[in-house]
Design a protein that fits this description.
Strand 5 and strand 6 (195-202) form a beta hairpin. Strands 5, 6, 7, 8, 9 and 10 form a six-stranded antiparallel sheet that branches. The chain has a four-stranded antiparallel sheet with strand order 1-4-2-3, with helices on one face. The chain has helices at residues 11-17, 28-47, 61-70, 85-94, 108-118, 147-164, 205-209, 222-231, 249-265; strands at 102-105, 122-127, 140-144, 172-177, 182-191, 195-202, 213-216, 270-281, 284-287, 290-294. By secondary structure, the chain is α+β, with helices and mostly antiparallel strands.
Length: 295
């Protein structure tokens, strides 16, 4: 029942309706919101599966393949250390997540050769485990258009790295293919109560400005992963706007399911995973950048 009177002191409202078991609202909007909450609750309750009812007790084959990345040569990395970008992407690839075609180079001539083989335009960025947020320091170059541009960009990035982070160990420059798509973000964090938690949202600058993200605690189903996409305030961006193609939502759901498996397998070894951006194109979702921090 919706009692739309602006007065609200009528006896039919204060005594008859409020004294009954009939759900009564003052506005149409609140009535619809309550109905949605009612159905959402029962939909969730009917499909919820406790994390302790069928826990994942056996590690996936990918965990064995990930071992050399987490402990190269059998020696564990220091606690709290961050993997290099290429090792972080290699870890995602062991779990089946798509990564761009890329190559680490150590000279301007190698950069030109890699750009030619990968196909211009390419993305170039400094490779260093000591530099986490490269774009903030101007250590990422987009739209490198040809081999000459790749040579110049290599020199500029190395010089900039020495200036912006003089103590950082630079392993070279990463040359990667340019991947189109909507910038989304996916990640794993460790909560003291729930353990590993998977996050999804709009990536790039959107995550810092809007904070448009949603979370799930493993284990969750593909239907739960698909619901994460719909829960974003900016979900319409995934449907394509202003002539842009729609994102491959099936690929995004698949990426979240694989990230969930990584989170469960490596809960005791990895404390944080940040895939930003996870580029959602019309035919796939590609992890264009990644950060992995060890527990």
């Amino acid at each position: 029942m919706i009692w739309g009177s602006p007065v609200g002191t009528e006896e039919a409202y204060t005594k008859t309706l409020l004294g009954s078991t009939v759900p009564t609202f003052r506005t149409f909007g609140n009535a619809v919101l309550a109905a949605k909450a009612y159905f959402d609750h029962h939909r969730f309750a009917a499909s919820y599966r406790s994390a302790f009812s069928r826990p994942a007790l056996r590690p996936s084959p990918a965990k064995r393949a990930a071992r050399p990345l987490l402990a190269p040569g059998g020696a564990p990395r220091p606690s709290g250390a961050a993997l290099s970008e290429q090792d972080a992407k290699a870890l995602l690839a062991t779990y089946g997540m798509a990564v761009p075609a890329e190559r680490v180079v150590t000279s301007p001539s190698q950069a030109a050769k890699a750009a030619r083989k990968i196909g211009c335009p390419v993305v170039m960025k400094i490779v260093s485990a000591d530099i986490v947020h490269k774009s903030d320091l101007g250590l990422v170059a987009l739209g490198v258009r040809d081999e000459d541009d790749a040579r110049r960009t290599y020199k500029r990035l190395v010089a900039r790295a020495q200036e912006a982070a003089p103590g950082a160990a630079v392993d070279g420059v990463l040359v990667a293919e340019t991947v189109p798509g909507v910038e989304t973000v996916a990640g794993v964090a460790h909560d003291d109560l729930f353990g590993p938690v998977v996050m999804f949202g709009l990536g790039g600058v959107f995550i810092e400005v809007l904070g448009d993200v949603t979370f799930r605690v493993p284990p969750f189903t593909e239907r739960d992963a698909a619901a994460m996409l719909r829960e974003l305030r900016g979900a319409a961006l995934l449907d394509g706007v202003r002539g842009a193609p729609a994102a491959d939502k099936t690929a995004l759901v698949d990426a979240l399911m694989k990230l969930q498996r990584l989170a469960v397998d490596l809960a005791g070894e990895v404390s944080e995973v940040d895939v930003n951006p996870l580029l959602a194109g019309p035919a796939g979702a590609v992890a264009a950048d990644a950060l992995v921090v060890l527990a």
